[in-house]
Amino acid sequence: MNDLPPDLPRLRTLETWLALTLDRVRQAIVIAEQREAQQQRAAPPPPPDWVVQLGIGRESHPVAVHVGGCRTVDQRARPLSRDQAMRALTEGLEPCAVCRPDTELGIL
């Protein structure tokens, strides 16, 4: 069963149509890739799970532990792993009163 036309003029027409359609698809792919790349550049990275807030000054010391994304955290914060956050809290570093990382970590 052959679904292609048998004569050369119609085969050439079909070839031209397929080439034009393929060009349009390739152009749409390029546009979609550019749009996706732009969206990835524009999206901020997700916040870390835990952060430590540092004090002001050249030799700033840790001040408090926060849940990542806490609205009270500023630029003086550094990411922490879960273990580092738990250790900091058990060693006496203050938990943020707003986001309550001690409760999130199960330290009561």
Quick overview of this protein structure:
By secondary structure, this protein is an alpha+beta fold. The chain has helices at residues 8-42, 82-90, 101-105, and strands spanning 50-54, 62-67, 77-80, 94-95.
Topology summary:
Blueprint: H1 8-42, E1 50-54, E2 62-67, E3 77-80, H2 82-90, E4 94-95, H3 101-105
Parallel strand pairs: 2-4
Antiparallel strand pairs: 1-2, 1-3
Summarize the structure in words.
- Helices cover 45% and strands 16% of the residues.
- The protein has 108 residues and is of the alpha+beta class.
- It has 2 domains: 1-43; 50-105, no CATH class.
- A 4-stranded mixed β-sheet has the order 3-1-2-4.
- It is rod-shaped.
The tally of domains stands at: 2
Compressed to H and E, one letter per element, the order equals HEEEHEH
The separation of the N and C termini measures 75 Å
Mean pLDDT over all positions = 91
Distinctive features:
2 domains; 4 strands; 108 residues; 16% strand
